[in-house]
Amino acid sequence: MSTYPRISAQLDELETAVEEGRRKMEWARQHMPIMEAVREDFEDNQPLAGERIAMAMHVEAKTAILVEALAAGGAEVAVTGCNPLSTHDDVSAALDDVDNITSYAKRGVDDEDYYAAIEATIDLEPTITVDDGMDLVAAIHEDYPELIDTIVGGCEETTTGVHRLRAMADDGALEYPVFAVNDTPMKRLFDNVHGTGESSLASLAMTTNLSWAGKNVVVAGYGYCGKGVAKKASGQNANVIVTEVEPRRALEAHMEGYDVMPMAEAADVGDVFITTTGNRDIIVEEHFERMQDGVLLANAGHFDVEIDLDALDDLAVDRYEARDGVEAYEMADGRRLNVVAEGRLVNLAAPVSLGHPVEVMDQSFGVQAVAVRELLERAHADEYEPGVHDVPDELDREIAEIKLAAEDVDFDSLTDTQRDYMGSWDHGT
Amino acid sequence: MSTYPRISAQLDELETAVEEGRRKMEWARQHMPIMEAVREDFEDNQPLAGERIAMAMHVEAKTAILVEALAAGGAEVAVTGCNPLSTHDDVSAALDDVDNITSYAKRGVDDEDYYAAIEATIDLEPTITVDDGMDLVAAIHEDYPELIDTIVGGCEETTTGVHRLRAMADDGALEYPVFAVNDTPMKRLFDNVHGTGESSLASLAMTTNLSWAGKNVVVAGYGYCGKGVAKKASGQNANVIVTEVEPRRALEAHMEGYDVMPMAEAADVGDVFITTTGNRDIIVEEHFERMQDGVLLANAGHFDVEIDLDALDDLAVDRYEARDGVEAYEMADGRRLNVVAEGRLVNLAAPVSLGHPVEVMDQSFGVQAVAVRELLERAHADEYEPGVHDVPDELDREIAEIKLAAEDVDFDSLTDTQRDYMGSWDHGT
Amino acid sequence: MSTYPRISAQLDELETAVEEGRRKMEWARQHMPIMEAVREDFEDNQPLAGERIAMAMHVEAKTAILVEALAAGGAEVAVTGCNPLSTHDDVSAALDDVDNITSYAKRGVDDEDYYAAIEATIDLEPTITVDDGMDLVAAIHEDYPELIDTIVGGCEETTTGVHRLRAMADDGALEYPVFAVNDTPMKRLFDNVHGTGESSLASLAMTTNLSWAGKNVVVAGYGYCGKGVAKKASGQNANVIVTEVEPRRALEAHMEGYDVMPMAEAADVGDVFITTTGNRDIIVEEHFERMQDGVLLANAGHFDVEIDLDALDDLAVDRYEARDGVEAYEMADGRRLNVVAEGRLVNLAAPVSLGHPVEVMDQSFGVQAVAVRELLERAHADEYEPGVHDVPDELDREIAEIKLAAEDVDFDSLTDTQRDYMGSWDHGT
Amino acid sequence: MSTYPRISAQLDELETAVEEGRRKMEWARQHMPIMEAVREDFEDNQPLAGERIAMAMHVEAKTAILVEALAAGGAEVAVTGCNPLSTHDDVSAALDDVDNITSYAKRGVDDEDYYAAIEATIDLEPTITVDDGMDLVAAIHEDYPELIDTIVGGCEETTTGVHRLRAMADDGALEYPVFAVNDTPMKRLFDNVHGTGESSLASLAMTTNLSWAGKNVVVAGYGYCGKGVAKKASGQNANVIVTEVEPRRALEAHMEGYDVMPMAEAADVGDVFITTTGNRDIIVEEHFERMQDGVLLANAGHFDVEIDLDALDDLAVDRYEARDGVEAYEMADGRRLNVVAEGRLVNLAAPVSLGHPVEVMDQSFGVQAVAVRELLERAHADEYEPGVHDVPDELDREIAEIKLAAEDVDFDSLTDTQRDYMGSWDHGT
């Protein structure tokens, strides 16, 4: 039994924190019309009654709206962070203050406490896990295999998490069904492109006070996150350079009008480097050696392994905080390479950072909420095998319709004639 | 046995036509580095030796480069058009003049001759069919079922064709394997978006002499073609309005910054209407009644059923050619609605139109060529069941690599460490 | 006395030409709401009664609408072309058929006839000249100085013309007042940016069947025309490279996100080169020597002196028409450099070209028409000194208001309080 | 004699503040290559030796680099803020610690202290004034006319300041020469467009955690600032709506593809409103009454008079801080209108705000520095009359060249032949 303390036991000025957390949540709630609709439905119909949900997510105001919706649906919820630097203690405290919710998330904890908090949520003996980065699934499979039998299923929020889950499933090691929430159109098309793109750039701008216009911005990786960063940087008049390992993506970037080149060449000309690959060792020693004085290095991928800071530290003759959240590594030849937010997810870990915009999380969490509902409805009936599952398309579509209605955006529907036409194959030229 | 005459028997000044057709093909060849590489490979290795290929495609210079590559690979080829207005007679004649190629394509034929020409190609008793709109597959299944046994497989070029093939397969009616070339990344990401987008707008501009800046351009449908048209119109400073029936696509357009509304509302404010849905009855009587004087109506979808011209004709009190390729329908209240290219595929059927740009067809036809090769290599060994098949990803990737090499675009490759990392699931936060 | 024949005396099938010319003019008229309003006003009020106007302009449908409006206002008009390749003979014939209008413009005339036609219009003994490139002003000052006394003033349409007029005025050589219509906001902000930009690219695309996506498009000069070409090319997903001689403009292009480099470097990497400088010798021998096989060379500046074709011809070992309007120059090493429209103004001289879009010319010609009216109202009273004059701002504003009304675009107006505030200087922080 | 205390006398932890201020300045200095070159030149040549400069500017790190350059050039400098909320006390302290610099700027002072600090700088009996908003010029003309005789001249940084100066000059009230630094190409083209655009949006995003994608963003005013905000918002996939009072600007926005409408209509549909007009009463009672729940209201114009907060307060039934820097005004019908940064300049006064990006201020302050040098060189010789003067073009060009050199951007130069051609007027078609 974990003895890791809930957040309320860790804070000094708890009442103030709870109040501030609530204010942050109210702002989020005001701009999350999908979750508002979902929460009302959950409150009325109690689809999660009697369930126990463990969550490892970025604990800040938007996530809190998902957590409270799940609790409103009848579940008992235990939540912790999925990144030591992304937790807002006040929101954590406000959540912990809600009935049926326990929060263990605290900002800045060390590795030991980070995993202790994860174990604390597992102590709930969850029937559902909700992950952003697969930490819960990994911990349960490694250390608490005895709990797997009672777990109905899980949801995974992020590209990297889904990637790892698939690798695990390929190894035959994943023993309960997990929804790849990350892979739904509603998540991928908006969260990764608009969310990561806008928030990473705004965090960088407000952390450094630098401009995008005319800058050579090197975007490593041209998946959905990379596309978002490239698109938004280009929209701020940066000259975007893309590095890729997949030829179709490289060609796609080239045809968009971006420069495409290997990182070894990009290192010579880039002013700002933003990694989005989900892979490791994207910017390494040979690149640091070629970079110009004053460059910015930032990461918008899930883990802090894309920029090889150990190698950079070895190269550096000096190292100092150039600005809050910016560490300058000074080379022997006087060049200064500025690493933002220690190479962690810049839109969450930079001093000026708020994670994804409220509206994109509204969409993404809307899918999470109905995916949890779906798991309970179907998976209890054993309809989902262990493994990674796509969220059923009609659920994703349901969330899109709620969003369009909230935005007062009207759209057409097929007539019967059109539906027939689309289903037929005998009409000619 | 068809007695439909090949193009050389239909033209008066044949020699001039052949010469002009060859000049057009040489220009295309100069800008189709992928096909150049494929043709060289086919000539050397004769992967299609002894095969008979029937093709119903837009017969103009770029397609001709595909046709000659297939013949260079050892096949006997019979080709006709897939749209009565898209054929270039001179290119048709130049093809017909090549060894092992017979062309029946002639511009402006009526329905009877159109289908007679298709039958003429079927007379070859093909082992492979290559379609752009499924006309060959449909004709063979309906009228020549006895040929199906000897057909190895087919390739389908276009969205609409694949859509109809899938409907046919769902009915259990498709009796040989067909590659959905249209669905490959190399086709979808470039042909539909860049090709349809750029060429439709340039054709419209050069047919009408009108400007895009500040125009309300209504794009019906937000699939790949619609996205292309919207993106390129926006890039010419149009104010883009999107109509859709699918909520995720509607939302995607909305989040891109476009206006999204039902056609019934768009009809009030649009200056230019471009349909891209692949469906019928997109612009109908109720819309015509609301449109402003002087609007342009054009179609970028495969078939000419998206704009209901019969209804428009019924409403009109007068009708005259306002400009080459532009038919003005005058309403009782004096409003003139200008239909471009009779509502047929505007980038092929407008008086100033050249189909897709050379470079995008180079990619698309590169996939076609290796897909035909694949069918023969594998399908003879019965590896492909009857039905619609995705083109194997490594073939698509092969074409991307050829293209990037031709453009001198270099890109990164994974290190072993990175490959291992991407395949592992045990690294934590 | 000139004996140069009017167009009606030069054409064989005159009636057909006139009819076709009228149809073209009707299409233009349908999309020129500003000129429609101006013409109605001129017809009613006859502000040009008794005047004689000589015009050297691109004689095609849109210009024809200006010509007929001036005639409708009471003037006698003689018109000829300002570029041997831009005249539409049918429009010229239709104009010549109108009362009080004589047209001498004919497509493809040689230098001798070109200037003879200009002299023919001067034979009218004009009170007003309307130029696009300063040919009339130059010819009158050089060869007909005796006419200057009776000339009230002139209008100049183009950047290059105004530039030359200012040089002439600086030399003290300009002896009557000329309005720099080119320099008005209504001309510069729309004609050069949107008009030149859109039409040059559409002409190039429809002349070559090539795509913009992923192309390195080198734009020489970053004035209004260059900005337009760069902006629209970028909007078609080209990778834009700018060359400039003025540091602020170079910096502006750089801050927009474009690559900026000297032509000597751009020559290595460009796929398409478009000159817009108004200067000569922009692309010369040293550049030809470095270019890749298959590049396109085109000019969007007024004169055909930006690309040094003589030098290119000297370098070439062969030269052939690769495509209508495209001359391939083959180098000794096999590289082919493709020159579009003989280096003349591409949006007017290419085989597929229509000049500026109708709507932009509507704005520009609206200013021309009211500038002519202004000259007569004020200059007869000697209010304008010899020299280059800005069109009075209220005239330019008048045209903008007519256009916005025609487009149903409503805008705000200042309250009295706001007007006072803008005129005051004593409010603090 | 003013007794207003310098900042060092007002702070408790002075040493820490000075250190932090210096760190901020070092970061700015690292990204201000123009100022670095200017400062080195000033140090070497002492062009300002013996002068006294009073400055009322936004006192933060970037401005500090200008202040220290002026001091390095030999001047004694007294500086204060030009906006009570834009001062960084630590930077103020670090400046005050420099030889020959006195700083009176303190964040959050009330009106009385604000003007007392301005008077304190005037106590220096300046020979040069440097303003951002004309406060110094106004105060000197109103209250210290006796100083005017010894003042050589001034510089004004901002649109609004220049506007007021011109009004003052029109009244014959401006008694010394002032450079309209704001009106230089180097300021206008970059500071207003890129600087205001990028920083306003990033501040708003990081203050509210909201997204731009798909938002209706109403930009009031389409001058340089409005263009920047519109361009950058559009580049983040907002749907931009522009309101204007000038028809050419309204048309320019319309032709860019933006929606243009009166504020009374925009009020119905806007999600975010950003004023940039420099005028007052842009958003008033009739607009508040029509707005949707949850809208954001922000100002990017110089003064806080664009949004009528008094009227909003009268309408509201409740008012609370929804988020740091966001005041929610609750209407009787439950709608909440969220005002950001009290309607003050959002990129300076929002809780997350840093003013303009470093690089744009580098350009703008480069011009300031050489303009001050110019005033001393020429104006002592009485070359500049009292009134508003344009900065000489060669100074502006000088700064552009320094910047391009710093960015390693090379550009072309005119050949003699080209220079002759541009100066001639006798070349024909």
Automatic annotation (TrEMBL), chains A, B, C, D:
Molecular functions (GO terms): adenosylhomocysteinase activity
Keywords from the UniProt entry: Cytoplasm, Hydrolase, NAD, One-carbon metabolism
Pathway assigned to this chain's UniProt record: Amino-acid biosynthesis; L-homocysteine biosynthesis; L-homocysteine from S-adenosyl-L-homocysteine: step 1/1
Swiss-Prot/TrEMBL catalytic activity: S-adenosyl-L-homocysteine + H2O = L-homocysteine + adenosine
Gene Ontology biological process terms from the UniProt entry: L-homocysteine biosynthetic process; one-carbon metabolic process; S-adenosylmethionine cycle
Residues that, per the record, bind NAD(+): 158-160, 192, 221-228, 244, 279, 300-302, 347, 356
Cofactor detail note: Binds 1 NAD(+) per subunit.
Localization per record: Cytoplasm
Keyword Cell membrane in record: no
Keyword Acyltransferase included in the entry's annotation: no
Major enzyme class: hydrolase
Record-level GO cellular component terms: cytosol
Transmembrane segments: none
S-adenosyl-L-homocysteine hydrolase NAD binding domain ranges (all copies): 192-353
E.C. number(s) listed in UniProt: 3.13.2.1
Cofactor: NAD(+)
Gene3D superfamilies: Adenosylhomocysteinase-like, NAD(P)-binding Rossmann-like Domain
Chief localization: cytoplasm
Binding site for substrate: 132, 157, 187, 191
One Pfam family matching this protein: AdoHcyase
Annotated function: May play a key role in the regulation of the intracellular concentration of adenosylhomocysteine.
NCBIfam families: ahcY (TIGR00936), PRK05476.2-3 (NF004005)
Similarity section: Belongs to the adenosylhomocysteinase family.
UniProt name for this protein: Adenosylhomocysteinase
Species assigned in the record: Halovivax asiaticus JCM 14624
